[in-house]
Design a protein that fits this description.
22% helix, Rossmann fold, 6-stranded mixed sheet, 20% strand, 227 residues, globular, alpha/beta
């Protein structure tokens, strides 16, 4: 685009009605659609994490979400008119509504959705009710993005009441990978095991903490759980 010299626009004064806003409680800006560059960066991060389960990645561009949780970032770029969204809890409801507006994705019940956001630990019975795809189309199984408090390398079995340790094996893992998470219980992973029992039907997981650190646990990954 060529540059041109423009005369400065005349200043216009507008009177604004005074509103009482409590400090720190200003409304966040409306969520905007992801730019192509943002979508590419986040999608690449998710793809790399899925190819290498147990590697702790970092979601880019989470600052563009404003005050919304970092766990919303994957759904911000994966949701579209052909996918379906759901909130697994009341806390996630507002964010999912905003995601639906900017992506065009329909919002449906949890057990029908392809993409689910959970900001508190999803109940085991709800996790096991997630759509697992079909024998002919297993790729239609749900992706659950679950917010957690913390993610770290190594096991903490028997040393922490707040963390669950996972030993992960399978495609993309050299031998085994050991991690620990806080903010989800051992029951969460037991329910996940039941949800992938009819492989290749099943569900996939992204576990994301508040600062955008995350891991992927696809249905192809074997888990040994200790807490």
């Amino acid at each position: 685009m060529s540059q041109s010299t423009l005369a400065p626009a005349p200043a216009v004064c507008h009177q604004k009605e005074q509103q009482d806003i409590t400090p720190g409680q200003r409304p966040s800006a409306p969520l905007s659609p992801a730019t192509p560059a943002q979508a590419q960066r986040i999608y690449r991060a998710v793809l790399q994490a899925t190819a290498r389960p147990g590697n702790i990645g970092s979601l880019p561009d989470t600052l563009a979400l404003g005050e919304r949780p970092s766990a919303a970032a994957p759904l911000w770029v994966l949701a579209d008119l052909m996918s379906t969204l759901a909130a697994a809890d009341d806390e996630a409801g507002k964010t999912v509504t905003e995601l639906a507006v900017v992506t065009g994705a329909p919002v449906v019940s949890v057990h029908l959705a392809r993409l689910i956001l959970a900001l508190t630990e999803i109940a085991p019975e709800d996790l096991m009710s997630l759509h697992r795809g079909t024998a002919r189309e297993p790729h239609l199984g749900a992706l659950l993005v679950q917010q957690v408090r913390g993610i770290g390398r190594g096991l903490t079995c028997g040393h922490s009441d707040q963390a669950v340790g996972l030993r992960m094996t399978g495609p993309g893992i050299d031998g085994s990978a050991e991690i620990h998470l806080s903010g989800v219980s051992a029951e969460f992973f037991i329910a996940r095991q039941a949800a992938i029992a009819d492989f290749p039907r099943g569900i996939d997981l992204l576990l994301v903490n508040g600062d955008g650190r995350f891991i992927a646990i696809p249905r192809t990954t074997g888990l040994e759980v200790c807490s």
